Amino acid sequence: RRGRAEAQEEARLAMASVRTDAAGCPEPEQLIANSELEFVAEDEFVEIVTNFSMPVLRMMGGEFGPFQAQHPMQAPLWLAIALHKRRKCRIRPPSWMDIQSLQRTLEEERESEGEFQPLPFRYIEIAHVLFRECRDEETWDGRENLFRIRSLVEDIRMIRLHKIQTGLKRLERSALKVTLDNLSAMEVNLIRPFLTKSLNRYYHIEQKIENGPASPTTPVLGDASPAARGATPTTDGQGGRPVRTLRRT
User: Fold this and answer.
1) According to the 3-state scheme, what is the secondary structure of the chain?
2) Which end of the chain is more exposed for a tag (fewer CB within 10 A), N or C?
3) How many CB atoms sit inside 10 A of residue 42's CB?
4) β-pair partners for 234
5) Cα–Cα–Cα angle for 58, 61, 63, nearest 5°?
6) Measured between alpha carbons, how far is 49 from 83 in angstroms, rounded to an integer?
7) Model confidence at 27: pLDDT above 70
8) What whole-number distance in Å separates Cα of residue 58 and Cα of residue 51?
9) pLDDT higher than 60, residue 20
């Protein structure tokens, strides 16, 4: 657990040092990677049922427990995965991953073209971690349920991605901000480079249109160059120090 805390601190420092371009937008190669988003999502709590009893477990990330055999409890995803790999617990998938709940969400996503249905902010990362680490039939009550749930999550993700792409194509030049409710962390990270730079470009275009084309200005006498004032720069012959001599016109 100490190594995980150190890794979290390194990730925090790395995010603080993200480079930005002249417009203040994160550079594409400096955006958060999907693996980093999954790492952050492992702090989300899930329900587990342990097969052992143990008092409160005190760690750098907090206190967890007490653990009682065959009693459900809440634990962070990283701890649940660690116990599951050692066959010390069974992970119960979140309620939003129920087949009926996913089917209802999928139908609502299809019916509402301009809206996104509320889902956990890190639903993609949580689902991906569970699909990768929990492939046993006991977690999903059968392998067929696992395949069905995975298919439904992927269908929902693709429909939401299509909505995002359609919405960005309809983006108007006058839009200085865009409101996209109920997007997840992975979806926000996906469109961040394009959206931030596009809005910044639109903003500069609007500023140029409002201010109009730049008009040439007549220099004042104090700011004019020697040639503009009828003066010819020469040197005094002693060290090359420049002096001005007026030329009659």
Assistant:
1) CHHHHHHHHHHHHHHHCCCECCCCCECHHHCCCHHHHHHHHCCCEEEEEECCCECCEEECCEEECCECCCCEEEEEHHHHHHHHHCCCEEEECCHHHCHHHHHHHHHHHHHCCCCCCCCCCCHHHHHHHHHHHCCCHHHHCCHHHHHHHHHHHHHHHHHHHHHHHHHHHCCCCCCCCCCCCCCCHHHHHHHHHHHHHHHHHHHHHHHHHHHCCCCCCCCCHHHCCCCCCCEEEEECCCCCCEEEEECCC
2) C
3) 19
4) 243
5) 35
6) 10
7) no
8) 19
9) no
| Spatial distance between the Cα atoms of 167 and 177, rounded to a whole number of angstroms | 13
Strand partners, 50: 89
CB 4 within 8 A of CB 61: yes
Peptide bond into 219 cis (omega under 30): no
- C-alpha pair distances (Å), 243 with each of 187, 224, 233, 236: 66, 16, 6, 6
Q: For residues 7 and 202, give the distance between their C-alpha atoms in angstroms, rounded to a whole number.
A: 38
Phi, psi dihedrals of residue 240, rounded to the nearest 5°: 75, 20
Look up tokens 């949580």; give the residue: 126
For the chain, the average pLDDT equals 77
d(CA 105, CA 156) in angstroms, rounded, equals 8
Q: What is the rounded distance in angstroms from the CA atom of residue 41 to the CA atom of residue 185?
A: 9
Q: Tell me, what amino acid is at 164?
A: I
